[in-house]
Amino acid sequence: MGRKWNNIKEKKASKDANTSRVYAKFGREIYVAARQGEPDPQANRALKVVLERAKTYNVPKAIIDRALEKAKGGAEENYVELRYEGFGPNGSMVIVDTLTNNINRTAADVRAKFNKSDGNLGVNGSVSYLFDATAVFGIEGKTADEVLELLMEADIEVRDILEEEGSVIVYAEPDQYHLVQEACKNVGITDFTVAELTMLAQNEITLPEEAQVKFDRLIDALEDLEDVQQVYHNVDAGE
Q1: What is the distance between the alpha carbons of residues 85 and 120, in angstroms, rounded to a whole number?
Q2: CA–CA separation, 177 vs 205, rounded Å?
Q3: What is the Cα–Cα distance from 212 to 132, expressed in whole angstroms?
Q4: Which residue has better confidence, 213 or 75?
Q5: 149: Cβ–Cβ under 8 A, 6 or more apart, which residues?
Q6: Dist CA 44 CA 26 (whole Å)
Q7: Where is the TACO1/YebC-like N-terminal domain (predicted)?
Q8: pLDDT per residue as tens digits for the range 44-86
Q9: What is the pTM of this model?
């Protein structure tokens, strides 16, 4: 799992370096989650997950409050969640999750980015079956044994627990996200370096230099799109 953790770290570092873009995406995601249920995280699990993720990216309270107030108000924006799956340079695989109020625009934009980087869109299911939906937590100030013990005491089984560069990384099933979170908070762990619901490739590949340049350009272009919320791939980020 260590290589996958490198990809997660790289993704977070990229988002941390593009704060205004990330804040806008979180604002939209918070609004949609709040509109799909109660605008109260204690009564809306989807919203609670988004807010926990936003916390790890230091999204300002003003942006969170604005999105929640917008959800409580009378104005309604209709967004649709869509997933695109495709292939980048040298057989690399990419999943693109979007929130859009204009399906035709989003489809055209995503397709154009793939085409410009020697890639192409596939049909639904052409890529995602080779990825696993996963809950990932990064915890500091504890050892892997200590985290394993507290999860066992809470009767929670996880996929893996590793120590990487001073952090304990917990990989769990998506439906265990809240269980892991609550078990940690019950022993005083309230801050996570990472708290994500993500898609991890079952097998990662390394690209030759020229293909890597094209691939990086593709990922950057996709993440720059306003309607794109998340981009997952199977390319090893390296050390």
Answers
A1: 9
A2: 27
A3: 23
A4: 213
A5: none
A6: 16
A7: 3-74
A8: 999 999 998 898 888 999 999 999 999 888 667 889 999 999 9
A9: 0.88
In contact, 183 and 154? CB cutoff 8 Å: yes
The CATH code that applies to domain 80-129+203-233 is 3.30.70.980
CA distance 217 to 229: 17
Helices (DSSP H) in 17-174: which residue ranges? 19-36, 45-56, 61-72, 103-116, 144-153
Structure tokens at 214: 């094209």
pLDDT band per the 50, 70, 90 thresholds, residue 9: low
Name which of 70-74, 213-217, 222-226 the model is least confident about.
70-74
Matching fold, domains 80-129+203-233 and 131-201: yes
- Residue whose token pair is 């230091």: 58
131-201 belongs to CATH 3.40.630.30: no
- Looking at the structure, give the CATH architecture of the domain made up of residues 2-72: Orthogonal Bundle (1.10)
